[in-house]
From TrEMBL:
SUPFAM superfamilies for the chain: Cadherin-like
Pfam family, one: CADH_Y-type_LIR
Membrane protein topology class: Single-pass type I membrane protein
Membrane-crossing residue ranges in chain numbering: 606-637
Gene giving rise to this polypeptide: CDH12
Record's subcellular location: Cell membrane
InterPro entries from the UniProt entry: Cadherin, Cadherin-like_dom, Cadherin-like_sf, Cadherin_CS, Cadherin_Y-type_LIR, Catenin-bd_sf
Signal peptide: 1-25
GO molecular function, one term: beta-catenin binding
UniProt keyword list: Calcium, Cell adhesion, Cell membrane, Cleavage on pair of basic residues, Glycoprotein, Membrane, Metal-binding, Phosphoprotein, Repeat, Signal, Transmembrane, Transmembrane helix
Source organism superkingdom: Eukaryota
Record-given protein name: Cadherin-12
Role noted for this protein: Cadherins are calcium-dependent cell adhesion proteins. They preferentially interact with themselves in a homophilic manner in connecting cells; cadherins may thus contribute to the sorting of heterogeneous cell types.
Major location category of this protein: membrane
Amino acid sequence: MLTRNCLSLLLWVLFDGGLLTPLQPQPQQTLATEPRENVIHLPGRRSHFQRVKRGWVWNQFFVLEEYMGSEPQYVGKLHSDLDKGEGTVKYTLSGDGAGTVFTIDETTGDIHAIRSLDREEKPFYTLRAQAVDIETRKPLEPESEFIIKVQDINDNEPKFLDGPYIASVPEMSPVGAYVLQVKATDADDPTYGNSARVVYSILQGQPYFSIDPKTGVIRTALPNMDREVKEQYQVLIQAKDMGGQLGGLAGTTIVNITLTDVNDNPPRFPKSIFHLKVPESSPIGSAIGRIRAVDPDFGQNAEIEYSIVPGDGGNLFDIVTDENTQEGVLKLKKPLDFETKKAYTFKVEASNLHLDHRFHSAGPFKDTATVKISVLDVGEPPVFSKPLYTMEVYEDTPVGTIIGAVTAQDLDVGSSAIRYFIDWKSDGDSYFTIDATEGTISTSELLDRESTAQYNFSIIARKVSNPLLTSRVNILINVLDVNEFPPEISVPYETAVCENAKPGQIIQIVSAADRDLSPAGQQFSFKLSPEAAIRPNFTVRDFRNNTAGIETRRNGYSRRQQEFYFLPVVIEDSSYPVQSSTNTMTIRVCRCDSDGTILSCNVEAIFLPVGLSTGALIAILLCIVILLAIVVLYVALRRQKKKDTLMTSKEDIRDNVIHYDDEGGGEEDTQAFDIGALRNPKVIEDNKIRRDIKPDSLCLPRQRPPVEDNADIRDFINQRLQENDMDPTAPPYDSLATYAYEGNGSVADSLSSIESLTMEADQDYTYLTDWGPHFKVLADMFGEEESYKTDKVT
C-alpha cells in the first residue's frame, strides 16, 4: 500500500510542473473557482495553444485497514494549480471522518489517517476539499468531493450464521443422497483478493458423509446405512477462507443428522406357540389374552395388523390390535363350555399395514404363530330350558289351578338338584305360587283381567350343592277375558240437528268400547230400542265396522216445539255370552244457516229480533251501563255543589265555627264576630235560613267525667231537635247546631265570661256548689280544673 502511495506522489511531481492531470477528467473531479488561461502541452504533439480550465488534481485514494504503525498513515496529496508555493493557499478538509479519522496539512495538502480503520465497519469515506486564500479567507476554487476507500485485509474468519444444523435422511439411502447444504459467511471484501473465498471440508463424520468444498452440500457417502444399527450422526464441518490455502482463517459448525425409518423389517413373533387358559365363564367380548410380534421399525412402519387364520376353533375368537402397545388382544366371540370342548388351537398372523415396495424382495412382511387355549371348568348356575316363559289363564280361575311349569338343569359334571323360587321383588302381591321341586306355577288369588291384564315376574333356580349359583328367568302370564261387560258408547257425544235438516242426513258418527278384552274379529252391532222404533224422529244406521250413524227421519225440526230429543241406542257385542246395553243419546235442535253451520242452540235466541247478533246485544248493554254511570255521577256532583254552596254562604249569621291561630283581642275585638247575635234571640227567629257546619273532631286535653242526666237540658235538646226536623230549609244530613242563648230568668244571671273584667286565674268557682243540684255538673267541672291547676303549680 505504501508503494502505491509513493508512486502516486512521484507521478504528481513529474507531470505538468507538479500538477497531476487525470487521463480522463470527470466533472466531479475538477473544481475551478476562477477560470484562467494556461498553456498545456498535451501528450505526443503540441501544434497550437489551447485554453483549458485549471482545477483540482488527484488520483483515487486508498488507505490500508488495521494499520498498526507508530506514525499516521499517509493517504495522499492535494494540490491546486493556483498554488505557486508561496504559502498563500490554505487547504481545508470536511466530510466523513475529517479531523477525527483524516487530517490534512493546510500548507502542503498532504492527507494522513490518524487512527486504525476497519473496512467491515465502514468501507469508504466521502470527503470535501477546498483551497482558501490565507489573507482574504475566501475560497480560490469551488469545493470538490472525493472518496477514500479502505483497502481490505484478511482479518475475518468464515462464520456459519445458521449453525448448528439439524438434518435427516432416510435409512438405506444410496450413496450421494442429498442431506443438507451449509453456508458460511466471510465479512472480508469478496472483490479483493481471496480473503472471502471459502472452502468447505469435513473434520468429523467420515466415511458416512461427504461435502462439496465449493457449495457446502452434504451427501451420504456409504450405502444402506441402517437406522436399527445407528440412528444419530454428528458431523463437524469446517469453512476456510483464502481458498483453503495455508494461513487462511477457518470456522466450524456441527450438523446433527438423523436416519429416518423406512419399513425395511417385517414383524416377527418371539416364539412360535402361545398358551392361554380361559375360564368357561368368561363373558362374550371380554379380553382373554395378549400376544405380540416385534417390529424393529418405528412409527407407522411398526404398525401391525393381527388376524386369525381360519381353522379349528378360530370362529369362537377374535383378535384386535392395541394401538398403544401394538399387541394382539384376543377376545371371545361365543361362550365357552368346558363340558362341550376343553381346548382350542388356531393360528394368528401378524403383518405390517404400511409396506415399502423397495423391500419386497427381502421376503414377505408377515409372520405366523400358533395359539393354544385351554378351557377351565367353572361351577355354572342352572340353565332354564327357555329364555322366556309365556303362559295364559282365564280370569276368575279357581285358586290353586296350575297354569304352567318351568324347568332348569345343572350342566356341570355331577349335576345337582334344583330348587325354584319366585322373586318376591317382581311379584310383590303374591298372585302366584311355584312348587320348589317340580317348578309348577299355580294361582294363589282370583284374577281380574279388567284390573290387571298381564303379570310379569321372575323365577329363580338355585343349585342345592352350591346355593350361591343361581339363575333367573322371566315369566309372562296373560289373563284371558271372560265376556262379562256389555259394550258402551266410547265417549259422550254432544249431538245437534239443524232446524232445516232433511230426511236421511247423518248428524253423528258413534263408536263403542268394551271393558272386556276384545278378541280378534269381534263386532259391535247398533240398533234402536224396540219402543223407539215406532214412528221415530231419528234412526240408527249400522256401518258394520264397529261404528254407526245417527240419521234424521223428518223434514225439519222446530226448537219452539221441542228443543231436545232422546234417542235410545242398543249396542251388542259378538262374544259369548252376548252382552248388550242401551245408551240414550241427547240430540239438541239448533238454528243453522243454509250450509248447515250451527249459529245458535240457546232457547233465548228464539225470542231475539231477527238479525241481531250477540255482539250487538253486548254493545247495547254496555252503552246503557255507561249512561247510568254518567247519570249517577252527575247527581252526586250536583249534591256536592249544593252542599258547598251552603257551607260557603256568608249571609248566614248564625253559628259559625271559626278556626284561626291568632290570639283574639278579648271583649274589645268586635270586628271578627258580631257577639250581639248570640245575645239576641230575635235574630235567630228572623233568619230561618241557616247554615250547618260539620264539626271537626276536637282533641280534648283531658277526660272529663260524664254528665249526669238532666231533665231540663234533655227537654231543651228535644225541643230544638223537633224544630230542626220540622224546618223545611234544613239540609238532609246530620249537623251540629250551637246555641249561645242562655235563657231568661236565671238566678245566677249570665254565666258568660265575655263581659267579665277579671282574669280566669282570679276566678273562684267554689260558690257554684251552693247553687243547688242544677249546677252540680258545672261545679264539678270547674272544681276539677282548679285541682288540676293546683297540682300543676305544685
